[in-house]
Amino acid sequence: PDVIIEAQFDDNDAEHGQDHLQDMLADDIKKFSLDTGEKGKAVGISGVHRTKQDDGPKVNDPRLLPDEFLQRTAKVVYILEKKHSRAATGFIKLLADRSSELFKRCAMFSPVDHRVPRVYVPLADCPPDFVTKPEDYSHMLFICRIVDWKEDSNFATGQLAKSLGQAGEIEPETEGILMEYGVDFSDFPPEALECLPQSLPWVISPGELAKRKDLR
C-alpha cells in the first residue's frame, strides 16, 4: 500500500517554480491512488489523503484494502511442544582451526540430516584415539544429543551418546533412525512378557472363534 514516487528535478522545474513540481507530483500520485468506491474521494496531497467526510475512514485505512494487498505477520509467543528428539545421527571430525583454544576442547559433529545444525561436542566424549587417528572414524556413525544452542552462535553444543557402527550397514543405520525419532526399541521387560500366552504354540480356542468375526 505504500508507494514511493521519484521525481527528477531539473532546470525546467526551477523555471516553472515549486507549484509546477507539486502539480506534477499530484498527477503521479493520482495514478497510484486506490479506488475507495462510494466511501470518499481523495483530495489534495498534503501528506495524508483526506476524504470529503471528515468523520469517515481514511483512504489509507488497511480495512479498506483488498486481502491481496495485506501481508499478515505474527510472532512466536510460546513453545507448546518440542517435536524433535534433539538426537541426530552423523559423523565427527576435528575442527579446521588447529591453533584455536576450541580445538583443544571440542570436535565438530556433522549430522546426516542437514536440517539439524552442526554441533560442538567435547573431546572427552570422543574415542580416546580420535585426535591422533581421526581418519579411522571418518565413516563411523555416532548419535549426538543437542543440549543447547545460543542465539548468537551458528553451531549448537551437545554430547555424543554412543557409537553406532560403520555407515551403510543395516543395523547401525536402523538404530540411528529409531533413536532420532525417539522410538524405544529396547527389549520388553519380564512383566510385559508374562502377559502373553505361555503355552506355545498358541492357538485360538473354538469358543473364541465362535463369537468373533474371522477377518484373516
Automatic annotation (TrEMBL):
Q: Where in the cell is it found?
A: Cytoplasm
Q: Which Pfam families match?
A: OB_Dis3 (PF17849)
Q: Name one GO cellular component term.
A: P-body
Residues annotated as domain CSD2: 107-182
Keyword annotations: Cytoplasm, Exonuclease, Hydrolase, Magnesium, Metal-binding, Nuclease, RNA-binding
Q: Which GO terms describe its biological process?
A: miRNA catabolic process; mRNA catabolic process
The protein's predominant localisation is: cytoplasm
GO molecular function terms attached to this record: 3'-5'-RNA exonuclease activity; metal ion binding; poly(U) RNA binding
**Cross-referenced InterPro entries, in alphabetical order?**
Dis3_CSD2, NA-bd_OB-fold, RNR_Ribonuclease
Give the highest taxon in the source lineage. Answer: Eukaryota
- Tell me what this protein is called: DIS3-like exonuclease 2
